[in-house]
């Protein structure tokens, strides 16, 4: 999505600049600047387009859901009210007091990954009379039923909540359904009464319920940066929901999904969960770490919001060094040169025109 936008920008910039005859030098400098900026941007990377090459089948759940079940060789098993059909996995039906979950049996040892979840939340309940939602997990433990959307509280790892029911009547500043993320080392409890607000890293409202079209969520974790995107408006593009740096998650945890209903209910369906490996280089120092020993945590600066524009991630000392700093300086320098050249040419033209008048 971002890639497409930046390409268009380059073309229009180039077209405009090439018409400016005498401004060849300025055009050259500007084109170089755009190129350098694009290069710099690509360092941060965009959400993947779902490149099948890097799809990890052992961590993915796809129709017709072969390998789902209780046999020793199965890669996914399930619990509770979960119903596996050939076209969807229903974690809960549209009935009261149901809980269900589905869990990958294979621990994930990828350092950088992106999970795309296709889901469907639908039911007969009218506005605000439905609940409670779905949670997507990357946790140390699996198949531990409990009160947090059908999974245990005081979990260890990452949770993304697709909360469809507003419990906190004081928190009217946000509309529901609300998507939020939480990282836990087992010490923090999820506060249902506040819809998890006290422990969330960030979130966004998204109309995910009773949609005619497909609805998707993407979770990317790479170099200490957690990015959540949603595609729920049938536009085939990702919209940013959460983007936060300084998140530490280990390898060797399990992916899962769970859902729960209470007095109010919904069908909570998972259509697919596709895990992609992200090809990211790490420094020797990072490679030598034992990633399975990392404790889930978040390096908050002041509040989660302050982390949002920090692109350096967890390994703060090593990422924004060397050639990246050089590129930043080069960009600034080129920017100044462009302004100076354009200014000089405009000044010269005015002088010439003034001469003609007098
Ligand atoms: Ca709630």
TrEMBL record:
Record Gene3D superfamilies: 2.60.120.200
One Pfam family linked to the record: Lectin_leg-like
Compartment(s): Endomembrane system; Golgi apparatus membrane
Segments forming domain L-type lectin-like: 53-278
Ranges annotated as spanning the membrane: 325-347
Nuclease as UniProt keyword: no
GO biological process: endoplasmic reticulum to Golgi vesicle-mediated transport
InterPro entries, A to Z: ConA-like_dom_sf (IPR013320), Intracellular_Lectin-GPT (IPR051136), Lectin_leg (IPR005052), VIP36_lectin (IPR035664)
A Gene Ontology molecular function term of the record: D-mannose binding
A cellular component annotation (GO) from this entry: COPII-coated ER to Golgi transport vesicle
Main location: membrane
Keywords in alphabetical order: Disulfide bond, Glycoprotein, Golgi apparatus, Lectin, Membrane, Metal-binding, Signal, Transmembrane, Transmembrane helix
UniProt membrane topology term: Single-pass type I membrane protein; Single-pass membrane protein
Protein's name according to its UniProt entry: Lectin, mannose-binding 2
Taxonomy of the source species: Eukaryota, Metazoa, Chordata, Craniata, Vertebrata
Gene that encodes the chain: LMAN2
């Amino acid at each position: 999505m971002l890639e497409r936008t930046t390409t268009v920008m380059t073309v229009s910039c180039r077209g405009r600049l090439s018409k400016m005859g005498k401004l060849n030098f300025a055009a050259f400098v500007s084109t170089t600047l755009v190129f350098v900026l694009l290069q710099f941007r690509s360092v941060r990377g965009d959400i993947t387009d779902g490149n099948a090459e890097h799809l990890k089948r052992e961590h993915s759940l796809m129709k017709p859901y072969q390998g789902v079940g209780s046999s020793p060789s199965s890669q996914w098993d399930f619990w509770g009210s979960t119903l596996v059909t050939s076209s969807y996995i229903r974690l809960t039906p549209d009935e009261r007091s149901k809980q269900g979950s589905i869990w990958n049996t294979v621990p994930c040892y990828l350092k950088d990954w992106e999970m795309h979840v296709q889901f469907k939340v639908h039911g007969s309940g009218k506005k605000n009379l439905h609940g409670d939602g779905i949670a997507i997990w990357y946790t140390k433990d699996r198949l531990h039923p409990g009160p947090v959307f059908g999974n245990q509280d005081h979990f260890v790892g990452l949770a993304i909540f697709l909360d469809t029911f507003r419990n906190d009547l004081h928190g009217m500043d946000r509309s529901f359904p609300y998507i939020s993320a939480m990282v836990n080392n087992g010490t923090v409890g999820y506060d249902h009464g506040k819809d998890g607000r006290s422990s969330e890293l960030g979130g966004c409202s998204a109309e995910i319920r009773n949609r005619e079209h497909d609805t998707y969520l993407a979770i990317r974790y790479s170099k200490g940066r957690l990015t959540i995107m949603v595609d729920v408006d049938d536009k085939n593009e990702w919209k940013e929901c959460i983007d936060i740096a300084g998140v530490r998650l280990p390898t060797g945890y399990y992916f899962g999904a769970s859902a729960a209903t209470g007095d109010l209910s919904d069908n909570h369906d998972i259509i697919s969960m596709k895990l992609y490996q992200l090809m990211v280089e790490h420094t020797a120092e990072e490679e030598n770490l034992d990633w399975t020993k990392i404790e889930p945590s978040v390096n908050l600066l002041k509040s989660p919001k302050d982390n949002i524009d920090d692109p350096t991630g967890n390994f703060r000392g090593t990422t924004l060094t060397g050639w990246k700093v050089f590129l930043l300086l080069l960009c600034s320098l080129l920017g100044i040169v462009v302004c100076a050249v354009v200014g000089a040419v405009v000044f010269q033209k005015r002088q010439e025109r003034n001469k003609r008048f007098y």
